[in-house]
Amino acid sequence: MLDKIQWKKWVLPLAIGIVLWLLTPLKPAAINVQAWHLFAIFIATIIACVTKPLPMMATTIIAVVIATLTGIFKMEEVTAGFGNSTAWMVAMCMFMAAGFIKSGLGKRIAYFFVKTFGKRTLGLAYALSLVETVLAIGIPSNNARVNGIMYPIIDNLSREMGSDPKKGTERDMGSFLVFTEYEVNIVTSTMFLTGLAGNMVALGIAKTQNVTISWMQWFVAAIVPGIISLILVPFILYKIYPPKIKETPNAHAWADKKLQELGKMTAAEKIMGVVFVLSVVLWLVGSKFGIDATLVSFIAVALLLVFGVINVKDILGQSFAWNILTWLSIIMLMSQKLMTLGFFPWFSKTLGSALHGMNWVLVLVILFLVYFYLHYLFPSVSTQISALYAGFLSIAIGAGVPPVMAALMLALDGSLYLSTSSYSAGPAALLSSTGYVSNKDWWKLSAIIGLVLNIIWLGGGLVWTKVIGMW
Known about the structure:
Elements: H1 11-22, H2 33-51, H3 56-69, H4 75-81, H5 85-103, H6 105-117, H7 121-138, H8 142-160, H9 174-191, H10 197-208, H11 215-240, H12 250-262, H13 267-285, H14 293-306, H15 312-316, H16 319-340, H17 343-352, H18 360-373, H19 381-398, H20 403-416, H21 426-431, H22 439-467
């Protein structure tokens, strides 16, 4: 096993962590020694999550052990930290996603929309966008939606229409549909709190700074820029990256054939559909009856288990869910402790004072854009959120940005910034390597659509949140 541990990748996190530890103020005034030491461990942990000498879960476990041995945490605090409601909500939503894929309901929905709206290539793009939107409500993994459902359908459909990278005909239709799927996946990930695990990670961290945002608040704030994006993004790509095939009369017959192969809806699909609708309703109105979003996800998984849509083996096989449950609980535990020890109030006051006198809207715009374009340096959504979200939020609040606005806009940014590079997330790595879209086109188109998304979600988003009274 020793050969799997990449010792050189420990050098940078250890060096920076030790230097920060040694820079502890000798006569601390506004901040105490424990807070500074935890900050040193926290920064070293985040850097190790980037350099990856070990998987993220292992790195965070090591970090919390060090923090406990140095007296920053008591063991009771650490064990209690694994009861974090946000981390459990992420895991439960991942288990729900397994039900979507296992039951086959996701594919059936996709084939239905293709059959109904797929007479033209642009219509196909919009049909697939609708599928993405429906799936994003209950599948918080962009990888699961793209890899498990959407790409196989787009690939099969494109080849059926004669658009095949192996034949050099990828630009006939497949290139347009593949890249549109990627950008629409970003939009749907941003529209719903449960559309991307990173959204819940961000709001979990925001909660450690005493800022709480509900599923409904997120939905109301995101729905208008989301709909505008779903309308404009496929159309813009159709104009700047047009498919050669404009009419797709055979798509209807292809989708109809696929539906016939699936046969009648199975009991598992029907149950999954009912549970999904129930979950959406409870996420929308459950808070009025004392049912929060995490409890909704538990109820949904319990129902899927009772009716046999998923089983314990399916749950145990969701390694990503257990992985994120572990490292997210630890990251949020450290963030909460940094807040309790007074680090974030001190940090926001110190850096926020440098922006004193600047209009808070301008501060938020600057932070939003910097946070977006910094993703060129990160190959992971969760790593950047873990590394930067708490600090950016703290600076924004210290500069006078309303806390809910700061937390929400930066959280939305945490999925929008996927429109940057071919390594921005798992779906980018997959789709950019299929042969449908060249590396040059991927970077160029990502930059263009990234600019469009910034205009819609930052410019339009600020206007819309003003209309609904969020500031």
